[in-house]
Amino acid sequence: MVQIVGKYQYVSAENFEEYLNTLGNTEIAQSFLHSTPIIEVQQNGEQWVITVNNKGKTGCAKFKLGEVYEEQLLSLPNSFKSVTTREGNCFRTETSFSADVKSVRIYEFTADGMTVHLSSDKSDVKAKRMYKRL
């Protein structure tokens, strides 16, 4: 089993701008397009904490696997309902941006880092963001 807890530095992306454009919300797209975050994953008993630091701003999501929680994404004023489950070396987070836009982020952890696979029910466009383990 791969170690999930740790810090990860953004390295690169594939198809990210195309994916963001399919969400149909320019506010969401612009807030993420030029982000180069450091993500820290912590665990305290059953509670997980994912902290995102990007350009002097910090966002934090605290959750228990399988339970709905309010997720505050950096640079956006609203929070969104999310639920995260674990599948082996992956976290799967489903987020409702609106009644007609739901996204799925699969955080795939390896010994060297993390890849975040992005998809939504809005289109078939998929993207990846790659991070190295610090």
Order of helices and strands: EHHEEEEEEEEE
What topology, given as strand order, has the largest sheet?
4-3-2-1-10-9-8-7-6-5
**Nearest-angstrom radius of gyration?**
14 Å
What is the total tally of β strands? Answer: 10
The name of the CATH architecture is Beta Barrel
User: Tell me, what's the shape?
Assistant: globular
Sheet with the most strands, sense and barrel status: 10 strands, antiparallel
Helix content, binned percent: 10-25%
Keywords:
134 residues; mainly beta; Lipocalin; 10-stranded antiparallel sheet; 2 helices; globular; lipid binding; Fatty acid-binding protein 1, liver-like
Brief characterization of the structure:
The protein is mainly β.
Helix/strand layout:
Elements: E1 6-14, H1 16-22, H2 26-33, E2 38-44, E3 47-54, E4 57-64, E5 68-72, E6 79-87, E7 90-98, E8 101-109, E9 113-120, E10 123-133
Helix pairs in contact: 1-2
Give your account of this protein's structure.
This protein is mostly beta strands and 134 residues long. It has one domain: Calycin beta-barrel core domain (Lipocalin), CATH 2.40.128. The protein has a ten-stranded antiparallel β-sheet. The longest helix is centred in the first third of the chain and has 8 residues. The chain is globular, with a radius of gyration of 14 Å. The model has no long low-confidence stretch (mean pLDDT 89).
